[in-house]
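Researcher: Structure for this, please.
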Amino acid sequence: MACSRLIPGMRGAALAPRALLLVMAEVFAPPPAWPQGERGPAQSVEAGSRVFFAKGCFNCHSVHGRGGTVGPDLALIPGRRSFYHLAAALWNHLPQMQREMSQRGVQPPRLTPREAADLTAFLFWLDYFDEPGDTVRGARLFRSRQCMICHQVRGLGGVVGPDLSILAGSRTPIMIAAGMWNHAPDMTAAMQARGIRRPSFTGPELRDLLAYMEGPSSGVPSEPMYVMPGQASRGRQVFEGKSCIRCHGASEGGRRRGPDLGAEGRYASVLDFAAAMWNKGPRMLEAMRELGAEVPQLRPDEMADLVAYLYAGRYFGDAGDAARGEELVRTRGCQQCHGARMPAGDLAARGLDSPAAIVAALWNHLGASLPLGGRWPTLRAQDVADVAAYFQAVRGTQ
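Model: Predicted structure, C-alpha cell format:
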C-alpha cells in the first residue's frame, strides 16, 4: 500500500487513480467503513499524515519520492525508527533545519504534544506500507508459481478458485494476509489433489502479484479498506484469543515452539508477514494438529490489529533510566536555560510528563537562541529515553 495514500493534498505528487480514490473516500465514505473502526486516544497514523502536510514537512521531505528534495526521503532512511530514535534524529538535525528555513524565509512551525505523537507515529509506520508492485513481474509470477491453474485474473486462468481480479478490487495487503491465512488449508488440499507443488513467496513477490491482480482501477471499492495500522491493544487480545501465544512469543521472553513474532526487524512490511504465514503454513497447521487446536480464522480488522501489536513492540525501544536522564540534563547544557531561576523556567514543572510532550518540546526549540557556546548538544535514542524517564519520575507519573 503506497505511503502517499496517507498524505492528503499532496501538491505536485502524481497520485495513482486508486490512491486518489482512497483520499476522496476518506472524506465522502460513511465513517464506520473507512478506515476500519474508530481511532482510539493513542497515536494516529492518519492524523500524523495530516500533521506532516499541514506543518510543511512535505515541502522539504519526500515519502517514497513524493514531496520536497531539500531533506532526505523519510521512507528511505535506514536503521531503527522507534519513538526515541526519531526524537533524537529530530533534535540532532534542528540546526540544519533552522538554517534551511531561515534561507527560505519559512516560519518554524510549532507542535503540540498530540501533534508530535501523531507525526512520530506516521514516520514510524512508514515501513508498514508497501509501494505499488510491478504488474509485469506479477504476471510472470502468476504463471510460474502455477496460480493460474486454479485462479483467473481478467479471464486468464482456471476456475477452481475465485477470480482474483474481482477480489483484488477491494483488497489491500492486510486483506490479502488474512485471506491467505484463512484459506491456506483448503488451498493446500486442492494443490495436493492436483499434484501442484505448493509455492513459496517473498513479500516483494506478493506486492507484484497484488499489482497484477488489481490491474486498472474499477472505481471506489464497495468493502471497507483496511489500509491503516490497527490498534496494538486489540492486537494483543487477538494474539492471545486466537491462541497464537501458545506457540509464539511477541518479545515477551520464554521458550516457544515457534519464533518470537515481535523480534526486531523480523518483518519489514505487511506483505512480508503475509508471505511468512503462507510459507510456514503447513508446519503451523501440523503443530496445531499436534496441540489439538483449531485453525483460527482472522478477519481483516483482526489481522490489522495483530500486525499492529507485533510492530508496536519496536515503537518505544529500550526503557530509560531516570538517574542517567538527570545527569544528561546537567551535563548537556540544558540548565543554562532551564534551571529553576533561569528565563526558560524549571524543566520539571513544564508538563513534560509524556514522551510525546518531550518530542514536542525538543522540536519547539527550532528558532530559539540557545547560549550553548556555539555547540549543539547531540542526543542518542537512549539519551532521549533517559531524559523522558527522569521527567516522568520527577512528576511521579511512572
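Researcher: Any notable elements?
Model: The longest strand covers residues 62-63. The two ends are 37 Å apart (CA to CA).
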